[in-house]
Design brief:
alpha/beta, 477 residues, binds NADPH dihydro-nicotinamide-adenine-dinucleotide phosphate, 10% strand
């Protein structure tokens, strides 16, 4: 057995990850259910490093030095369980099984429990950055035991994206912590993209700019605070023309798809009671776009532009207001995402270093951005901060942008351009900073119809008013 690591599942992600590992000088045993993929990989890229091609699972396991580190990169869900079941009887105590697929973190918790009972280490490893990242340096979020990270960590840190000499790979915490953080990361990516899409729609529908002109605006934005992979990519996509001569964005069907990680993030946020309004609106906006029959019915009944005067704001002023609204909404989306990670960590007893998450997302992944350095600094200054929103740098950014943000949301409401993420982020901000919330009325109503009790502002205790009786107040505890 001469391989230091093994990888099974050589589709797009696995094959690129295997090449990346081999290119970094690690001897890697490779395996795939359909052997042709293994043969193809070694034929095409065998000269990039030291691959040990194997056909059967027995041969694969036998090729790896003990304690074995085995990465599974197959379709998430049942296929992952099938591969684990096939592997386990062939392994020895102390071996490390790593799931690098997009598993739901609760599946990872379940699998870790089952394998640790057999004396094996199970790692849930979130890998971000798609095909390109897998090959040239992804962002890697590892969940598992310290022992597992001692073996796996150095290899993964060597193949991860590197930013300022720091690898974009870390030991997030035990069992499901890595996949949980990867999930929230994907949720943040949903919000980020939705905010960009709303900005584009506003500039196009309100100012009448062409995709090319909007692409130039994004290119300019990429030179400032908003500098990020997604903004850069937006400039690139908007500048691109289809072979037909039409702007590319105009020939793409406007129904956004999703693989489910946004939905998982929102479901988990509901369970944890964390308001992730930006991510939720982004997820629902994708669903709405796909509801083609409802959209068609609504288009027939309601004209697409609202009644009344169409306003034409000053171009430069409005472009700058949209930029400010985008930045402020982005701060909110990230603040919410980090809240969810903190809440998840608390719920599952994971000790997650939040600043480290911002650090390892600076490279390799889709949400890489200059902005993440500010988040890293905020956590370095105050590791237990209550919300990112109120830290010095972000508070200033939001204060500076709030008037523009309101103007953009008001304009979108008047002109009928839907901006669910901009609007809900502003509502979240206003909700947080409000002296008194109408939640008081909700508590009063709940006590009236269901005797759900309430607390008072002026003294301790739990109270109930006899609404159907003499309306006297009872102290419950
Ligand atoms: P796919 O999700 O398309 O999975 C295909 C691979 O799974 C093939 O190697 C296939 O083997 C294997 N497989 C499927 N069912 C079984 C089974 N029952 N037993 C054994 N092997 C099986 O591949 P991707 O490369 O796209 O993704 C791999 C993982 O990485 C997934 O979990 C995905 O969610 C995750 N991921 C993907 C990203 C992306 O951008 N694509 C980004 C980050 C993570 P065979 O060749 O024999 O059919």
């Amino acid at each position: 057995a001469r391989a230091t690591i093994g990888l099974t599942g050589l589709a797009t992600m696995g094959r690129n990850l295997a090449r990346n590992i081999a290119r970094h000088g690690h001897t890697i045993a490779v395996h795939n259910r359909t052997t042709q993929k293994t043969t193809d990989l070694v034929e095409q890229f065998g000269d990039e490093g030291d691959f040990v091609a194997t056909e059967s699972m027995e041969e694969f396991v036998g090729a790896i030095a003990q304690p074995r580190t085995i990465v599974i990169m197959v379709k998430a869900g049942d296929p992952t369980d099938a591969v684990i079941d096939e592997l386990v009887p062939l392994l020895d105590e102390g071996d490390i099984v790593v799931d690098g697929g997009n598993a739901h973190f609760t599946d990872t918790i379940r699998r870790e429990k089952a394998l640790s009972e057999k004396g094996l280490h199970f790692v849930g490893m979130g890998v971000s950055g798609g095909e390109e990242g897998a090959l040239n340096g992804p962002s890697i979020m590892v969940g598992g035991s310290d022992h597992a990270y001692e073996h796996l960590g150095p290899i993964m840190e060597s193949i991860a994206a590197q930013v300022d000499g720091t690898p974009c790979c870390t030991h997030v915490g035990p069992d499901g912590a890595g996949h949980f953080v990867k999930m929230v990361h994907n949720g943040i990516e949903y919000a980020d993209m939705q905010l960009i899409a709303e900005s584009y729609d506003l500039l196009r529908s309100t100012l009448g700019l062409s995709p090319k002109e909007i692409g130039e605006v994004f290119e300019e934005w990429n030179g400032g605070d908003l500098e990020s992979f997604l903004i850069e990519m937006t400039a690139d996509v908007l500048a691109h023309d289809d072979a037909s001569g039409e702007p590319f964005v105009d020939v793409v069907r406007d129904a956004a798809e999703q693989k489910g990680t946004g939905r998982w993030t929102v479901q988990s946020a509901l369970d944890l009671g964390v308001p992730v309004t930006g991510i939720a609106e982004a997820t629902f906006a994708r669903s709405l776009s796909g509801h083609t029959s409802q959209r068609e019915a609504a288009r027939k009944v309601f004209s697409t532009s609202p009644e009344g005067e169409r306003e034409q704001p000053d171009r430069d002023t409005f472009v700058d207001q949209v930029r400010a609204a985008l930045y402020a909404s982005k701060v909110v989306a990230y603040a919410q995402g980090f809240d969810q990670i903190a809440a998840g960590a608390e719920e599952h007893d994971w000790d997650v270093d939040l600043g480290m998450m911002a650090t390892i997302w600076r490279g390799g992944c889709i949400i890489r951005a200059q902005f993440l350095d500010r988040i890293r600094e905020a956590y370095a200054e105050e590791p237990d901060l209550t919300t990112l929103l109120t830290t010095r740098y972000f508070a200033e950014a939001v204060k500076d942008g709030v008037d523009a943000w309101r103007e953009v949301v008001a304009t979108s409401a008047r002109t009928g351009v839907p901006t669910p993420a901009f609007s809900s982020s502003l509502a979240y901000f206003d909700g947080l900073r409000r002296e008194r919330l109408p939640a008081a009325l909700i508590q009063a109503l709940r006590d009236n119809f269901g005797a759900h009790t309430y607390e008072r502002v002026d003294r301790e205790g739990t109270f109930h008013t006899l609404w159907a009786g003499d309306r006297s107040e009872q102290e419950m505890s």
